Amino acid sequence: MPDVEPIPLARLTSLRTGGVPGRMIEAHTADELVGALREAWAEGEPLLVVGGGSNLFVGDEPFEGTVVRVRTTGIERMPSPRPGFVRLRVHAGHDWDDLVAYAVAEGLAGIEAMSGIPGTVGAAPVQNIGAYGQEIVQTLVEVQLIDESTGDISTVPADELGLGFRTSVFKQHYGSVAQRAAVILTVTLELADVGHGDRPVAGDQLRTALGLEPGATASLAWVRDHVLATRRRKGMVLDPDDPDTYSAGSFFQNAIVSASFARTLPPECPRWPVTPDLDPVLVIPLAAYDGYVPASSTEESDVKVSAAWLIEHSGLRKGFKLPRSRAALSSKHALALTNRGNGSAEELAQLARFVQGRVQAEFGLILQPEPVLVGVEL
Fold this sequence. Notes:
With 378 residues, this protein is an alpha+beta fold. The protein is built from seven helices and 21 strands.
């Protein structure tokens, strides 16, 4: 196995926390990755798989186990059974934004609104990444993975991955374990081959973020450029010269609540229905029709509410920090917890707990962390 000299996880995670692991392996090919995983699982030692490190919050103590860095890269373009579409099979260690740039350059639509999201392609399905109304579930066809329990490699279709809002069967939510212990080796997406001309920009969230009116048109390149500019203004594009980007992106998930709970929040709190509000269609067989049409019953969809708005309106403004702490909310976006310079994981955890407490006190809602927590408690 290609062992390398272990380095602090603080150098591999965008939150810049984490100690030195006992062993570190870099896997540059699929065979190296499979071999490293099978060996670590067979030995029963603690294992941490690291891609881009942008969705990990790692504790201060040394990691007593093996860290496997996924460095596999490559994009394979394949035909799609659907006319007007193209499939891309991408290795897990490929940089996500590099994939988006490739797709846009090739005139392939479906992931351009997710420009600038840090991390690797293999991590994308784990939490069903998304931005401005686009999510990977909309374009994901299948993943190739290796299961921890058997060491077997299989190809699993997207509809068997439990993809939901920032979740999947692979996601280790705070306080729980993943439903399926596996590591993704490749990801296959199906994208629309639309070319480089202007086309309607779909989705209210994306149009609002870009300042576009309904019916507006733009090219994929224009959308990508403006999404990147929007994310940079919020400190959501990694930049070594900008401490506001020393973060895990959005530290807390936008909350999914019932429609009735959403009505208890101030009306100015931004919110979006989780499912489309479709008009129900009632079909009555002619032989059964007796002249009476029953009243339709509709079920209100859940609502996604803005965690950033809840944080700011609980009294915590951008740039807020606890006394003598090196952790602070981003000066550009209240949803990002940032490491302002050699801050410890415990300092970040203290700030996260404080934010949770303020939002709960003001709005009766406990925000849930989005990154995977390793060796740290909230």
